[in-house]
Amino acid sequence: MQGPGRLTEKWNDLKDSVQGSQAWSSIFRPGSIFRKGYNDSPRNRSYVIMNSVLYHLHPVKVKRHAVKVSYTLCLGGLSFFLFILLTVTGIFLMFFYRPTAAQAWDDIYALQTSVTFGLLVRNMHRWAAHLMVLSVFLHMARVFYHGAYKAPREFNWVIGVILLTLTLLLSFTGYLLPWDQLALWAVTVGTNMMGYTPVLGNQVRFVLLGGAEIGTDTLLRWYVLHVLFFPFITVIFMAIHFWRVRKDGGISGPL
Ligand code: HEM
């Protein structure tokens, strides 16, 4: 055989040997359209959905009202989007920030004046944080207005309350990090208020401050809570929240 026919044959041989290799079949699971000899059967179609992380996140059926933006106002989705934006911009900020009393404020100042896009990213992080508090609150109001906290979604409402608390804690711990006058006094007032906790007031205040008064130990403590502990817990609760939305029968609908 000559010309294009020979070329096609060579191409098919190459495709067969790559797709038949052990390395290839260890990556693509049975039923994948990339596997050797894939045929368009109903069984293989369902395999394609079940074996793909992205496809299987989508429900098999969606109620018509649930995809209407006017029903949910996409406020839960917006809260999630803002959380992702905060994570990405937060990682950028971490490259230029050291959580010590001597360096924190100078680092923030340098970030704004000498780092390319520093001021923009810092403001994106700050605005997204304010917006997330607002969107989570509005999302909760929307859920309440639609009575979506009723059975079978009571548990997801409780998960939601935990998410709201975590959002507020993330916001508050981030507030101290610029180490400016506003931050110092906000945290002084906040921790003094927590000092009035019945019985354990002084202990609670001591743990939160990492000492008797606000200082570099407080900054390190709140930094770790802000960049690691609270985001980690939030991701876990968000996963449970989304999973329950699906398991509770999708988005609630008009009665
Ligand atoms: C970080 C915060 C949160 C995120 C990212 C989030 C995300 C979501 C998303 C994406 C949905 C799907 C429908 C929609 O977009 O409205 C949803 C539904 C729901 N959320 Fe949230 N949520 C958060 C906080 C809350 C809070 C504070 C509450 C209540 C206290 C709550 C209770 C619920 C309930 C009950 C549903 C089911 C609603 C229905 O079936 O109509 N969530 N959430």
In short:
The protein is mainly α and 255 residues long. The chain has helices spanning 3-19, 22-27, 42-50, 53-56, 69-72, 75-94, 104-114, 118-145, 154-176, 181-194, 201-209, 216-247. The model has no long low-confidence stretch (mean pLDDT 93).
Give the arrangement of secondary structure elements.
Blueprint lengths: L2 H17 L2 H6 L14 H9 L2 H4 L12 H4 L2 H20 L9 H11 L3 H28 L8 H23 L4 H14 L6 H9 L6 H32 L8
How would you portray this structure in words?
The protein has two domains: 3-56, no CATH class; 71-247, Up-down Bundle (Cytochrome Bc1 Complex, Chain C). The chain has helices at 3-19, 22-27, 42-50, 53-56, 69-72, 75-94, 104-114, 118-145, 154-176, 181-194, 201-209, 216-247. With 255 residues, it is mainly α. Helices cover 69% and strands 0% of the residues. The mean pLDDT is 93. The chain binds protoporphyrin IX containing FE (HEM).
- E-strand count: 0
Mean of all residue-level pLDDT scores: 93
Q: CATH architecture of the largest domain, please?
A: Up-down Bundle
Q: Supply the CATH class of the largest domain.
A: Mainly Alpha
Rounded to an integer in angstroms, the radius of gyration calculated over CA atoms is 26 Å
Bound chemical compounds: protoporphyrin IX containing FE
Kindly, what is the distance between the CA atoms of the first and last residues, rounded to a whole number of angstroms? 69 Å
Total domain units: 2
Give, in order, the helices and strands.
HHHHHHHHHHHH
Query: What percent of residues adopt helix (DSSP H or I)?
Result: 55-70%
Percent strand: under 5%
CATH topology name of the largest domain, in short, is Cytochrome Bc1 Complex, Chain C
